[in-house]
Specification:
heterodimer, A: mainly alpha, MetI-like fold, 2 domains, 13 helices, B: MetI-like fold, two-stranded antiparallel sheet, 14 helices, cell membrane (chain B), MetI-like (chain B)
Chain lengths: ~270, ~325
């Protein structure tokens, strides 16, 4: 009983900001900041959302973020599953050294590389382009580490033998044997990567300098900078930026959380 | 290189043993033809990491000895950036701010995560619901939720101050008072990460074999004793993981203070820069003031700080393990 009381109290505090986001987005700014404040959802949600759509290129920002997150996710899944398949199921000279290097790259905080990474992209002429949003995030050491653990347990040696006897080369084995078995692991890594890129803020803030091409997080933050007096509208924009994620999360939540916890236990 | 459990090795053996010559000949392929696909498979990561990881990190060493505004010519300044770093009051303030916010968020966070994990572990019903609810903050965007909580913390008419006024407790300058500002940032961080860390701790709790508890109960240990003598020590690796990731994350805090205190004039971290964290300061110097060389130097200072704190964590939480092992060894020897 005490357990449930503690847990319910925690849930109320945890979930309250989401509720409050909805309350703010569906009332007028005057209502929220009045005293006593309005604590229940109002009827102005549509109005506030229309204001966001009128005054900003919200759909453009969302499209940009969807493309960036999808592009990164596909690249990460291809690159990491290939590398993890090789590391987990094959032996080749220098394999352990190479894998140790992958692990070592965990240790480098990317803030260290922030300035030179920006300079590198400026040289390449990529600042403000989709490439700048997608490619740096595609080198994902965590994904290789995680997928390798997964592949070790999931792919039976016999399956690979069988494919070999059928004359399949390495890449055919990866495609026909590896990928189908790895699918649940790929689903987790894919959602994880997608969320990370969707929510990323510092990097897009630095490289996406063209005001006509702002990714979602930057656009929402700028909304606050420009229309700070109309909090209802700002929060409506914030709400619109998180709804797709919450939707995806609620569909696959149980699977996602279990995998994430399992990943942490492997360290 | 160990070949024992590899597919290549055992496939070769099996081929020799059963199929004989009729497959692809009895001699193994020469090294290059045999191994190139694996190297090809791992190379995209290394290529990308070389371009976007190794090169920038290496280049940032060079850059940190330069004075450069990103457009004009670079000028070598030797150790000047680092010398300036040591005397730059704003930089030191950003370190102090970061550490205060880190303590204010990490300590309650680990405590609450353990409490929630323990409650989840001992609860049978609604487990799935709780887990999803607690995890939600972690997947939603920091920008959006910081905006929401920012207006809850708003000085004049935010929800929190309205509530405090309603119980005649007086209002707090959440977005203007040096300490309250840090508390606000820490609260947002804690809110976002408690659930995540609770789930990790829960996984750790579930990994402890019930046999150990059974044995303790047989020996007459009470709940308190089992919690402090078994649960906490067995959880140490998980707590270490949580502590290290919280430290790395805490020292790199950026989005919360940046969104909470917007300023068009290039100032960061709110009134008096009291919520300026190290990364926020780096961002300001490098990307608002275009001091790329100095920004690179701040990056290295941050790196050293993270390394030092990770080692401290390791010593504090992981080190006791070795200590205990030494003690046990000593005892055994004494016997």
């Amino acid at each position: 009983m005490l357990g449930h009381t503690v847990l319910m109290l925690g849930v109320v505090i945890t979930v309250f900001p989401f509720y409050w986001m909805f309350v703010m987005a569906s009332n007028t700014t005057a209502d929220i900041f009045s005293y006593p404040p309005k604590l229940v959802p109002g009827s102005h949600l549509w109005e506030n959302m229309s204001k966001v759509l009128d005054k900003t290129d919200f759909w453009g920002s969302m499209a940009l973020t969807i493309v960036a997150a999808t592009g990164t996710t596909i690249l990460v899944l291809l690159i990491d599953s290939l590398a993890a398949f090789a590391f987990a199921k094959y032996d080749f000279p220098a394999r352990n050294v190479l894998f140790a290097i992958v692990l070592a790259t965990f240790m480098i905080p990317m803030q260290l590389a922030l300035v030179p990474q920006f300079v590198t992209l400026a040289w390449l002429g990529w600042v403000g382009s989709l490439k700048a949003l997608i490619l740096p995030g595609a080198a994902n050491a965590f994904g290789i580490f995680w997928m390798r653990q997964y592949a070790k347990g999931a792919i039976a040696d016999e399956l690979i033998h069988a494919a070999k006897v059928d004359g399949a080369g390495f890449f055919r084995q990866w495609w026909t044997v590896g990928l189908p078995v790895l699918r649940p692991g790929l689903a987790f890594l894919g959602i994880f990567t997608f969320f990370t890129i969707w929510n990323d803020y510092l990097w897009p803030l630095i490289v996406m300098t063209d005001p006509g091409k702002l990714p979602l997080q930057v656009a929402v933050q700028q909304l606050n900078g420009i229309y700070t007096t109309d909090q209802s509208m700002v929060i409506a924009g914030a709400l619109m930026s998180v709804i797709p994620l919450i939707g995806v999360f609620l569909i696959g939540a149980r699977h996602f959380i279990a995998n994430l916890a399992a990943g942490a236990m492997k360290f | 290189m160990a070949v024992t459990e590899s597919v290549q090795g055992s496939a070769g053996e099996r081929r020799r043993a059963t199929a004989g010559k009729e497959l692809d000949g009895s001699r193994p392929l020469p090294g290059w033809r045999r191994y190139w696909p694996m190297y090809a498979a791992v190379s995209p990561f290394f290529f990308l990491f070389a371009v976007f990881g190794v090169f920038p990190v290496g280049y940032s060493i060079y850059l940190s000895f330069m004075s450069w505004d990103g457009i004009g010519d670079m000028k070598g300044v030797g150790w000047e950036n680092y010398a300036y770093l040591l005397t730059d009051g704003d930089f030191w303030q950003s370190i102090t701010n970061t550490l205060i916010i880190w303590v204010l968020s990490t300590v309650p966070m680990i405590f609450l995560a353990l409490v929630i994990a323990y409650a989840l572990h001992t609860t049978v019903r609604f487990k799935a619901f709780y887990r999803v609810a607690y995890f939600m903050p972690n997947i939603t965007s920091i920008v959006a939720m910081t905006l929401v909580l920012g207006s809850v913390f708003s000085n004049s008419s935010g929800l929190l101050n309205n509530m405090l006024r309603a119980i005649s407790a007086g209002e707090v300058g959440w977005l203007s008072d040096p300490w309250a500002m840090k508390v606000a940032v820490a609260a947002i961080t804690t809110w976002r990460w408690v659930g995540y860390n609770a789930i990790i701790c829960l996984a750790g709790l579930q990994a402890i074999s019930s046999d150990i508890y059974e044995a303790a109960r047989v020996d007459g240990a009470n709940n308190r004793q089992t919690f402090f003598r078994i649960t906490i020590p067995m959880l140490r690796p998980v707590i270490l993981f949580v502590a290290i990731t919280s430290t790395i994350g805490g020292l790199q805090l950026f989005t919360e203070p940046q969104v909470l205190f917007p300023d068009a004039a290039g100032n960061v971290g709110g009134p008096g820069g009291e919520a300026t964290t190290i990364v926020l300061y780096l961002y300001q110097q490098a990307f608002i003031f275009n001091r790329f060389g100095y920004g690179a130097a701040i990056g290295w200072a941050l790196f050293i700080l993270i390394a030092v704190f990770s080692v401290i964590n390791w010593r504090l939480i992981g080190g006791r393990d070795e200590l205990a092992a030494d003690k046990r060894k000593g005892k055994r020897r004494a016997r």
